[in-house]
Amino acid sequence: MTEKYSLTMRILHWFMALLVLGLICTGWYMEGIPRDAPDKFALYPWHKSFGLTLFLLLIVRLLVRFTSNKPTLPQALPAWEKTLSKVGHFLLYALMLMVPLSGIIMSDMGGGGKLNFFFTTFDILESNKEVAGKARGAHGVLPYVLLGIVVLHILGALKHRFIDKDPEVDVLKRML
User: What does the H/E/C string look like for the chain?
Assistant: First the structure.
């Protein structure tokens, strides 16, 4: 094994972290704009474009993750923290998959725009307003669940760095 994640994994981690937080903030902002505002839907194509980008990067990240050497969890970590770390990472990956998928389903089945940046990318799912509505409900809730897991992830890394102050359990250095 290795002491650090590969440079590719570290770049993907931090870039995707910025995308996730940016998309959650943008989505929250867009939902707060009154429906009758003239520019209500100006950000939607950008949100969709970056959401699809995040989805594609997740696929790349999973491929890199499963084909790279990864650092093992420190032996000094208590078993409950190792378990919590594994569950937290699983939830992060699952939610980074489910949030964009729910957005894609909502948009494609609901008749929303199909633009990814400046070109059409997909129109593959049959229109189904009922399924699109369920996807919209999921897309309205799941980002906040993802945000909660991200906050716990950050707090865990900071705890090991600044509270434990044990270089052996400082997992943050592996991703810096």
Answer: CCCCCCHHHHHHHHHHHHHHHHHHHHHHHHHHCCCCCCCCCCCHHHHHHHHHHHHHHHHHHHHHHHHCCCCCCCCCCCHHHHHHHHHHHHHHHHHHHHHHHHHHHHHHHHCCCCEECCEECCCCCCCCHHHHHHHHHHHHHHHHHHHHHHHHHHHHHHHHHHHHCCHHHCHHHHCC
Structure tokens at 80: 């409950």
Report pLDDT digits (tens) over 87-124. 999 999 999 999 999 998 998 898 776 666 766 666 77
User: Residue holding tokens 């997992």?
Assistant: 171
What global pTM score does this model have? Answer: 0.90
> Rounded to an integer, what distance in angstroms lies between the CA atom of residue 142 and that of residue 144?
5
